[in-house]
Amino acid sequence: MLPNILQVLPSTVPLLLALLVNAQADHSSEASEAAISDPDQECEPYTYPPVADQMGSFPTVWQVPSILANDSNALAMWNSISSNIPTSISVKTQPPPSDYPSDDPDCWWTYNQCVTPKLTGVSPDISDAPEPSTLGYGFDDGPQCTHNVFYDFLRDQNQKATFYYIGSNVAKFPLEAQRGLDEGHEICVHTWSHPYMTTLSSENAFAELWYNANNQACSGRYPYLLEASIR
After folding, report:
1. Phi, psi at residue 162, to the nearest 5°?
2. What's the whole-model pTM score?
3. What CATH number should be reported for the domain holding residue 65?
């Protein structure tokens, strides 16, 4: 019996290898990624060379970034705006401390859902749709590997949405991010690593936005709207 099994095994190895190869989903293009319907295959880790080749210009994913030492553009931008950033607002802790002033001098959203800064010259947050009878779709924290079915639904319903992408997720799922852009959705900045933004220094907060925006700009369009992560 054993010799017969040993005789059969060599002939089955190519078949097994072929099955394994065929089981791997095609993550080589936006179209091939969009065609995947199996959630397990959608969420297979993949490398997309046009993005992977540029990751040396970005911080480590899912870590609060600082301005990279070799990033002269980021440093120049930071130096051009840093003198205009208020220094009277302290870095916060989470949750809000019990001794934080009840009049909310810093307009801290986490404390009191404040959307109108108390500093002169700082515009209010956009917190609602001012037009009457207006419905807007906004979705945070993408892109995710299982977005195909959601993109398909929006396409089939002839609907557009606003997606607030996290830079680290764009680096992980670049083809899902590209599909959202190419299908006409509004793509906005939602930080690089999704931290409590009010717990960061001004320079770290700048880096969170800068590297998210530049990551998305690799797709060919620079985002112009942002939504802070946890405040």
Report:
1. -105, 125
2. 0.84
3. 3.20.20.370
